[in-house]
Amino acid sequence: MGDVHSFRYKDLYLVLDVESNCLHAVDELAFEAIDLLNKGLSWSQCCQSLAKYYAEADVENVLTELKTLVEKGMLFSKKMSEIDGEEKLVKALCLHVAHACNLRCQYCFADAGSFGEDQFLMTLEVGQKAIDFLLEASGERRHCEVDFFGGEPLLNFDAVKKLTRYGYQKARKKGKIIQFTLTTNAVLMNEEAVRFLKANNFQVILSLDGRPEVHDTMRYDGRGRGSHAAALSGVRRFLDGSVENNYYIRGTFTAQNLDFSNDIRYLVEQGFKRISLEPVVAPPDQSYALKEEHLARLKKEYEMVADLYLQKAQEDQPFEFFHFNIDLERGPCLVKRLSGCGAGKEYLAITPHGEIYPCHQFVGQRQFLMGNVLLENSFRFLPESSFPAAGPLVGECRQCWARYHCGGGCRANAYFVNGDLKRPYALGCSLQKKRLECALYIKAKRHLEAEDQ
After folding, report:
1. Inter-axis angle of helices 28-38 and 43-50, nearest 10
2. DSSP H stretches of helix in 177-316
3. Residues sharing a CB contact under 8 Å with residue 307, sequence separation 6 or more, in sequence order
4. Cβ density class 404-441: b for 16+ within 10 Å, e for less
5. Cβ pair 60, 69 in contact under 8 A
6. pLDDT per residue as tens digits for the range 356-372
7. What is the H or E stretch that residue 320 is in?
8. Are 324 and 309 in contact (CB under 8 A)?
9. Rounded to whole angstroms, how far apart are CA atoms 107 and 215?
10. How far apart are CA 224 and CA 217, in angstroms?
11. Are 247 and 255 in contact (CB under 8 A)?
């Protein structure tokens, strides 16, 4: 039989059919029946086992309903086939317009934004070559994306403005649509930046870790002063009462704030409606690193976030939590579900010097250098030997019930934690699965509540 994931969350018995993505809220009898079938018992063996504890007629009715779901491909459905010969077309660039930063965040993977080199800003020539490269390498794709990144991209705001106009003009000539995003610590978010970003339909990622004392512990300037007040002011300046869905508040939690549900509550109380709070990935010798011993506490915190999510929805004050956004009806397409992380294929990073890497986290790792936009015809996709295929159907991910929702996880995390691109980061996997269970519970709970109204 195909894979299912059965779990009890508070008052609900839930079953996710892994291959079809169908979610079922069932009673205790059906839950036990599915568990026995999943362990390999035949229908008749399952019936005999359950009849010891339940009325025979009830058991037969439940098994009949389950057989109907199986016949419809909604339970124990067949495993997807791998997709061979997928064409590699670049879809998005992470454009490092500034290898420099005005902050010195303690957990920064990019060495204060410089990525281990002298601080440097991207020139207009390099940025234009990068956009030309994207429009060419995207082939027949009509939609392309560019994320202005750093360091702090607002340190090179003049280039951001000019490259945005250049990108729109070039895309229009090629009959393509280009979407721009910008990831910023918000400290330099002034009125000019706000006007420009909104006028050009930017999606903006605004870094804010939560409560002032939490944020200031990890995110401070070159003189050791906390940046929360300045960042919050910049975030408010950008939002300015807006109800648009053109932003995410993106924070990081560490071992210093294991009670991170309180940071999400703080952000919600500030009126922010779109929130993403990510677990730090750090060497285990760092005081702020998350460890296996923290796992039980972190899982409980995610449940508290789920409770807050449902509470605010009932109070007609809903907010989005990035990791609870799942679409079981439409969801990602088959190719996307099977291909996993797009790093090194659909998604690339370009440094201020024009160098091309699989993603922003691999920048500076010379063994993963893929070319340079300043050198004609230098770009090459990395061979399987140095950047092996990954995704939900590779290695240990094949057996994981959450494989189609995480796509095999982050390649960079796998590499930097385990030294192996195909071996997923175990702690990250555990947190991902807990977030997904919370999201499935929310989905089922809201659906059942809507049916009762």
Report:
1. 140
2. 191-199, 212-218, 228-239, 261-269, 295-314
3. none
4. bbbbbbbbbbbbbbeeebbbbbebbbebbbbbbbbbbb
5. no
6. 999 999 999 999 999 99
7. strand 320-321
8. yes
9. 11
10. 10
11. no
State mean pLDDT over 211-234: 96
User: Which residues, including other chains, have CB under 8 Å from residue 200's CB and lie 6 or more apart?
Assistant: 164, 168, 180
Spatial contact of 234 and 188, defined as CB atoms under 8 Å apart: yes
Closest CA to 260 of 284, 232, 279: 279
Sheet holding 22-26, edge to edge: 4-9, 12-17, 22-26
Closest CA to 351 of 342, 340, 361: 361
Over pLDDT 70: what percentage of the chain? 94
C-alpha pair distances (Å), 358 with each of 71, 347, 366: 42, 7, 11
CB–CB of 356/373 below 8 Å?
A: yes
The pLDDT, as a whole number, for residue 389 is 74
pLDDT in tens, 248-270: 999 999 999 999 999 999 999 99
3-class DSSP assignment, residue 181: strand
Which is nearest to 210 in space by CA: 145, 267, 128? Answer: 267
DSSP structural state of residue 419? S
Is the pTM higher than 0.85? yes
Q: Which backbone phi and psi does 132 adopt, to 5 degrees?
A: -60, -45
Find where tokens 């902050």 sit.
103
Q: Which residues contact 295 (CB under 8 A, 6 or more apart)?
A: 427, 430, 431
List CB contacts of 143: < 8 A, sequence separation 6 or more: 91, 176, 177, 178, 179
d(CA 168, CA 179): 9
Identify which of 408, 413, 409, 405 has the alpha carbon closest to the alpha carbon of residue 392.
Answer: 408
Match 């490269």 to its residue by tokens: 133
Residues 6+ apart with CB under 8 A from 355: 363, 369, 371, 372
Q: Are 149 and 160 spatial neighbours (Cβ–Cβ below 8 Å)?
A: no
Could you tell me which residue, 251 or 422, shows the higher pLDDT?
251
Nearest alpha carbon to residue 306 among 328, 324, 280? 324
Q: Distance of alpha carbon 164 from its chain centroid, rounded?
A: 25
Q: Residue 422 — pLDDT band, cuts 50, 70, 90? A: confident
DSSP-derived secondary structure letter, 94: E
Which letter, b or e, does each residue of 48-69 get, where b requires 16 or more Cβ atoms within 10 Å of its Cβ?
A: eebeeebeeeebeebbeebeeb
